[in-house]
Amino acid sequence: MAELTDLERVRFEKLNRLRELGMEPFPRQTTRTHTTHEAIQAFEDAKEGQEVKATVVGRLRSIREMGKTIFAHIEDGAGRLQLYLRSDDLGEELMGLFSDNFDLGDFLQAEGTMFRTRTGEVTLNVADLCMLAKALSPLPASKEEIVDGERVVYSAFADPEARYRQRYADLAVNPEVRDIFVARAKIVRALQRFMDERGFIEVETPILQPIYGGAAAQPFITHHNQLHQDLYLRISFELYLKRLIVGGFERVYEIGRDFRNEGVSTKHNPEFTMLEFYMAYADYKDVMALTEEMVAYVAQQVLGAATIMYKGQEIDLSPHWKRIKLRDAIIDKADVDIGQYPTVDSLRQAMVALGHDPSEQSTRGKLIESLLTHYVEPELIQPTIVYDYPRDISPLAKSVPDDPNTVERFEAFVGGMELCNAFTEINDPLDQEQRFQEMGRDYVEGDQERHPMDEDYLRAMRYGMPPNGGFGLGIDRLTMLLTDKALIREVILFPHLRSKE
Question: What are the beta bridge partners of residue 271?
């Protein structure tokens, strides 16, 4: 055990004293007849003169001693409730035990009768109580001080890195952080309802995959000892979900984790949550319409409105969103017409003239993507669909008619960040095989962002795949948007952090 602080030593002494006095600090069982909210509601609903008894549990949040009486507050998952303790009801022994050995942060059980104080607060007059869990450490960054005669938590847990490393403490002392994750759960439920109501089937596909694919990203590698086989944590659900389209499911979706062995940023975490869906007999224009409808629906379900505030700006998520071709968006924001630079060398020279230092190994599509990221994305505050992307960075998307170097792909941007990515999917196995081969040629040998050849996926396609549109949405980013958070770490319960060592 780490060296104890002075406050922790005092709490350990209280732990031992409770046991000596016959009260187990970590009992096996507990009893609760009401949540704090239910207890208050039962009192409010009772007829005049009707006695309401309740047994409640929760974390001790405040203590105010006033001579022979004590007022305290406990908090459970439903809210807060004031406790009223006095010697006449509780007895001198139990009253003293509470006063001398209970601390802020402890979990307790209290039994008594509900009443309303002179100030109007619904309160439990405590007749019996016990400890449920002794908090041996004070909650981080909190100070137990006397303020106007009341022992209270003086300051909140505020340091961002400490909050992320000790999310359990962050949640315990910052209720607004709990609200973020309640909202996140509602977002996931709303997405599921939206998909289910439109005839999609929710499925599960492998996380450990013998061949990674469905995106251009570096994977995490692991090893299966029994099979003597290297495996990859999936970077996308795409190729497995489209196998299901071959198998006869016309509409499928999955919500789950992807893993990409890449850098971290305000918008990136090595593992993140995605919604992907595939819809037979649809193209990217059909998916555009569904995207607009979906995001507005989720905002309405979670926030009660399709208009939100994000980083101080009002954003209307209602359909119909602005739509612009990628080429036109770059002309507008970067003053570069990528159509005038058909080769990677000519485009690189144009970017150098703009002051960029593009990698010599970048494909033309990667250079265009960097222009989008640098000039266009930060400016797209209101919902905007940017469509028709370079072929060489979209190996699974169908080409635009009469333009083999451009594909039917779009990304949607809101609040200056990418929210989702979608294609008209290739369903010609010969075309798909050629794309895989092109990816092998376009990327430098050993670059793990190269999309590998997946022979089993091609075999599946040869059985016949109907035309279909595919879509991927970052749930972490949607949560950032709907909770007005600028950092992805704020909306992930346990984000990845560099080791302190």
Answer: 259
